[in-house]
Model the fold of this input.
Amino acid sequence: MLNKKFLSFVIISIFFVISAEAKIKKIGNGLSIDIPDGYQYASINLRKLLSRFPITSKDFSKKDLKDLEEIGIGKSTKLILLTKNKKNIDFFNKITTPIGFNDLNIKYFEKFEKIYANEEITNFFLKEFKKKYPNIDINKISENDFMELFSEIIEELQDDKDYKKINQKMDELVKPLRFDFLLEYPVDEPSMIIVVGDKKIKDKDLDQINNLPTNVAYQKILKEFNKDFLLKAMKLEETPFQIQKNQFGNMYMINNMKNTNVSQFFTEPQYSEYVLTTHKNKIFLAISSCSSKCNNSSTGTALGLVDILGHTNLFKSIKRGVVDVRY
Done:
């Protein structure tokens, strides 16, 4: 599975090559997409992205890169962004340069960190951690293990009175900063990330999926997802998604959902759609999301994924309606 931290880094570190002219845009690997009115297109390959962050890219070992290649992600993998608001282009352009990132860090990121490092908030969660895991030294476990354990604590505290008070305090501290950030960079408005892989996945690995009945493939994929604590926390087994075969004989997974669990950052429900499949033995992933101005889709979630990806012929459709979830 693609490392989630790496994917997050990729998503927020795209350097934009902007184009809003073509309605039908070739995106590589023999695929084209439809660009609706008002959307702007941006793309870069992984090689160029890593070259812009030489210090960060050193953190990825040869093994990391080899692991990515095994799932079809090589240095020529194409990363694409579709967005409706030019302010978000400004944000992504800034975050991909040392000077721009430093400005954002001083203006927003460091202030968010200070809020969550608040002594009262920190002591509360440390106390809950020690209560639930008295024999675990928090300084001797990995970051991944800590986050998995921490997510379990959060889930159990949802109805706790003290937790609700702490959550309210965080909301009061975050709210004005969040308002300023979203006013300058409305990342909650509709946007889409597309990943077009460049490395062929081994035929035997694809055949293991494509030759399975769809219900068996569903269980197999779900089992793999639940190995990762972030995906496990989303409780995908409670949000039925479609698994079908497209006209090329490739299995695809697709879904649309609404997360009803609002947060300090997003005070409205968040809508999302995704499609994951392969084409010519190369991975194809598209994720769209929004929690503001979600009003232009044929799918019911107002993100336009079907409209944009329809020209690829990689899937049949997303069923109308939204699966409500809380994660």
User: Anything to note?
Assistant: Residues 99-184 form one domain. The longest strand covers residues 270-279. Confidence is low (pLDDT under 50) at residues 1-21, 297-302.
